[in-house]
Each structure stands twice: as C-alpha cells, then as structure tokens.
Design a protein that fits this description.
Main location: membrane
Number of strands: 10
Order of helices and strands: EEEHEEHEHHHEHEHEEHH
Radius of gyration: 18 Å
Number of domains: 1
CATH topology: Rossmann fold
Strand content: 15-25%
Helix content: 40-55%
Organism: Blautia segnis
Largest sheet: 6 strands, mixed
Keywords: ATP-binding, Cell membrane, Membrane, Nucleotide-binding, Transport
Structural class: alpha/beta
Number of helices: 9
CATH architecture: 3-Layer(aba) Sandwich
Subcellular location: Cell membrane
Distance between the termini: 36 Å
GO molecular function, one term: ATP binding
Length: 241
C-alpha cells in the first residue's frame, strides 16, 4: 500500500534520517520505537508530506507521491494524530469531526454528521457533540483528534506519540480508543514509548536509532529475543519508568 524508499533528511548539518526504507501493507499495524532524537516523528511527517525530504521516494498504491495526483490521493487517504492534539479549539466537537469530510471530500453535511456521531460514540464522546473543544481535557481532545482522522475514512493513520502530552491517568483512555481503531482494520503506524501497547497491538516493531532502522521484527522477536544489547538496554530503561 505504502512504500518508504531510502528517505534521507537533514536539518542544517544534522542528518536526521539516513536512508530509511520500509513498506506498510493493508491492515498492518507498525509500531516505531527508539530513543528521543532518533528520527521517529520526522519519518511520519515525511510520509504525510508535512516535511520535505532531501532524497528518496514515497510511493502510495504504486505511484510516487511526487506527482500531483498521487499526492492528492495520499492526503485523502492518510490521517495523522499529533502529540499536541491540534484540534480546532474555536469549534465544537462535532464541527471538528465534520470539517474535513464536508470541505475536502465534499461529503453532504448530514451524512458527515451521522458518521461523526458514530465515531464520537466509538471514542467515548457520545453526547459531547456541542461541547467546545477548548473546554475538553487533554484526553478528550486527543479522542476528538482520533475521531477527526477516522472521519476521512483513511487507509492509513499515523500516530505521533499520541499519549506523550497527556497526564498519566489519561493515557489509558486514549490507548483504548486506538485499540478500537486497530480493530477497524485500518493500517496504522504509531510512534510510541508505551511498550506493552506496542507489544499487544503491533504486527511489526521498527526500532530506530541515529536516523536508521536498527531492527524490523515481530513483537515476539523484538521483546523476547532482542538481537543486540542496545535494544535490550532500551527495553529495560523504558519498562523501568
């Protein structure tokens, strides 16, 4: 479905991505793990074309997204959920969810409202449609952001550390929602430090360090039979937190 081919990216003299390559298949759940500064969030932003890359290629459904039509398709079918929610705080919960389907995909408003209410029920916000987003807790705002991404019926959703900005007691509610999204069959790429969640949900684990993919393995292989001491050290440190 989506191919990342030899992507490199520099910020000034700092080489953040050093030839990253991997494929995302239909329905696949990939967790990207690694220390801070390893390039995890940058690769997500490159996939979604929020960040330009210096070299390499990203293909969607067999076509390079460098071409206008393929890029348009990519943006129609890939959703992203950010660390800092990025909801429209001046809008209601319902307005947040219907905004893109109505104005980007030209879905009839009533159809968009019906779908939005289904999604808000799924993320545990039934009855909060008219609440202003700015009055919600961080966990609630993140659940709105997930519903908003799902409203575009994406083929792939990218999650960039979706729980890192939340108070600890709110992390579980957002992870439960992401579990529901995973059960819908949507392909997912999730950057996270939640080890147990990654082990439970992911089909594959990519471990990044210093701008390269050090390991690409099943959760069982990664957690039970790590191939080098650096990965063992990372798992121990994160699980001790």
């Amino acid at each position: 479905m989506l191919s990342v081919k030899n992507i490199s990216k520099c910020f000034g003299d700092l080489e953040v991505l050093k030839g990253i390559s991997f494929d995302i298949h239909k329905g696949e759940k990939i967790a990207i793990l690694g220390p801070s500064g390893s390039g995890k969030s940058t690769i997500l932003r490159c996939i979604n074309q929020l960040e330009t890359y210096d070299s390499g290629e990203i293909d969607y459904m067999g076509k390079s997204v460098d071409s206008g039509q393929a890029l348009h398709q990519l943006r129609q079918h890939i959703g992203m959920v950010f660390q800092r929610f990025n909801v429209f705080t001046h809008m209601s919960v319902l307005q947040n969810v219907i905004e893109a389907p109505v104005h980007v995909k030209k879905v009839p408003k009533q159809e968009a409202v019906t779908r939005a209410k289904e999604l808000l029920k799924m993320v545990g916000l039934e009855g909060r449609e008219d609440a202003m987003a700015k009055n919600l807790s961080g966990g609630q705002q993140q659940r709105v952001a997930i519903a908003r991404a799902m409203a575009m019926d994406p083929e792939v959703i990218l999650f960039d550390e979706p729980t890192s900005a939340l108070d600890p007691e709110l992390v579980g509610e957002v992870l439960n929602v992401i579990r529901k999204v995973a059960a819908e069959g949507v392909s997912m790429v999730i950057v996270t430090h939640e080890m147990n969640f990654a082990r439970e949900v992911a089909d594959r684990i990519l471990f990044m360090e210093d701008g390269v993919i050090v390991e690409d393995a099943s959760p069982e292989e990664f957690f039970e039979h790590p191939k080098n001491e650096r990965i063992r050290q990372f798992i121990r440190k994160v699980e001790e937190r």
